[in-house]
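Moderator note: this is an archived Q&A kept for reference. The question asked for a predicted structure of one protein chain; the sequence and the answer are reproduced below.
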Amino acid sequence: MNENSRVVMAAVVAGAVLGGIAGYLLFTDHGRALRRQIEPALDDVTRELNSFRSTVHRAAAAASEGWRLLNDALGDGGPSLPYSGIRQTSPF
């Protein structure tokens, strides 16, 4: 068995496992009940990730302000906001 065959076999097994899990969660009564229990936890995770993203954005703004103040104090003519180019779209 060569390396490509192993990769293909692993992909087939992983796809079968994920398909079985999806089928269980979507098409069985027990799966639906489990999904209803999991959804509030996923909402909490989403809320925490949004909060973390906001914290990172505030930290980047503070770093930019720090660089600007340092450049002003040293009289450098370099870029005043090195982190100002950060742009991130929402993954949610």
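Archived answer notes: The mean pLDDT is 86.
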